[in-house]
Amino acid sequence: MASHVDSRLANAIAASALPLEGSAYDYDPLLELVGDARFVLLGEASHGSHEFYRERARITQRLITELGFGAVAVEADWPDAYRVNRYVRGQGADRSSEAALAGFKRFPTWMWRNAEVLEFLDWLHDWNRRLPPSQARTGFYGLDLYSLFTSITEVLRYLEQVDPHAAQQARARYACFDHYGGDSQRYGYGASLNLSASCEDAVVAQLRQMQGRAFDYVRQEVADGAEAYFHAQQNARLVMHAEEYYRTMFRGRVSSWNLRDRHMADTLEALSQHLSHGGGKPARIVVWEHNSHIGDARATDMGEHGEWTLGQLAREAYADEAVLVGFTTHHGTVTAASDWDAPAERKRVRPALAGSIEDAFHHSGVPRFLLPLRTAKAAAQALAGRRLERAIGVIYRPQTERHSHYLYARLPQQFDAVLHFDETHAVQPLEASAGWHAGEAPETFPEGI
């Protein structure tokens, strides 16, 4: 049976939608909306859609070249992204963007090891290379906290250079994790159930010691002492937050989710302060994360359950200096797994559920558009109610579509603008398997075969 179409809503959206034609001027209205804002948070409705990656890159290139944004901060771990940062700024040993992405070994590798990210990093490296020596290079940074053991290695490597005695002390403190074979979740399970000792005191003490010696360390005769210390300090802080995250993840979703997004907000603020130091003006940063992080949780049922998000925290900290931009799609294909740590697959995205935000966008008849919710008053008013909104992460389970991939949201309060692409296509992993290239069998394919 055909679903009921709210023609009033569809017409209001169509009247306010700004079609995206693929021209150089598509995002002029978005840049006008950004204005003097210091933070632009660009979302995605999945972690595996080509159009989301491509259009974020197009917008980011304009923010860098026209508005002077100096950093891209992404939903990735600090040490892996910092290796990319060194490459795009003309430092480090890597000789290509693909080599610089080699640090992304943890599932889901396709999130950053994909063709669209590779193309953007090639562009960013070339942009930085052509800048005059006196101009700051645009960096690439990670905001996430999953890299507990990699970050420990980075802290120890730094201390061995600047303070070998402190490195011995740090190694003794971090030895608390040695029994877990590099398995963060195993540590969290044991510590949360009091089956093994918590490493909390050790990681807090390590960060405090490094902070207490910051002045001496920055003065060390190592290349770019302030930058090297900042990188090490961020890793030490990540270890502290990751220890708490894994220790709480078995106690409930809300506490671990909030710890993660608070860490990302704290990292964004630390990065802003670091890049603003001595520059004469505040740093401007582009953020790439999932809609579920960059949207304002207070406008969704996530907020009703006690969860907060990076987008909410950014609005609370920076008010109108933070611009939140969501992305949506109605149907197509996506790169995702069926389970955690499972191979990447090219899956079909089912048409959005009737009554959802994506369904309303589909019935507007505009296949690709920008909707500036701050200024499109008629559309914002028509969308003011609570509606279903789809969110596909690294796992996509269409068999449980409604339960697994939808939340309720009030779109005009969740985002300042939204980009809709009615049909999207799977992002191509750099190591695409034969299974990914084959894609899914049609839904009519006999299940017993």
Task: Write down the overall mean pLDDT.
Answer: 93
Distance between the termini: 30 Å
How many helices? The count is: 21
Please give the radius of gyration in angstroms. Answer: 22 Å
User: Structural class per helix/strand content?
Assistant: alpha/beta
Largest pleated sheet: 9 strands, mixed
Q: How helical, in percent, are the residues?
A: 40-55%
Total beta-strand segments: 11
Tell me, what's the shape? globular
Residues in β-strands, percent: 5-15%
Ranges where pLDDT stays below 50 over 5 or more residues in a row are: 444-449
Quick overview of this protein structure:
With 449 residues, this protein is an alpha/beta fold. The chain contains 21 helices and 11 strands.
Written description of the protein model:
With 449 residues, this protein is α/β, with parallel strands linked by helices. The chain is 47% helix and 14% strand. Strand 6 (322-336) and strand 7 form a beta hairpin. Helix 7 (148-162) packs antiparallel against helix 12. The radius of gyration is 22 Å and the shape is globular. Mean pLDDT is 93; it is low at 444-449.
Helix/strand layout:
Blueprint: H1 7-16, E1 18-19, H2 28-34, E2 39-42, H3 50-67, E3 71-77, H4 78-88, H5 97-100, H6 115-129, E4 139-144, H7 148-162, H8 164-174, H9 184-192, H10 200-212, H11 214-218, H12 225-248, H13 253-276, E5 285-288, H14 291-294, H15 301-304, H16 310-318, E6 322-336, E7 345-349, H17 357-362, E8 368-372, H18 377-382, E9 387-390, H19 401-405, E10 406-409, H20 411-414, E11 417-424, H21 434-438
Parallel strand pairs: 2-5, 2-6, 3-4, 3-5, 6-11
Antiparallel strand pairs: 1-8, 6-7, 8-11, 9-10
Helix pairs in contact: 3-6, 7-8, 7-12, 8-10, 9-12, 10-12, 12-13
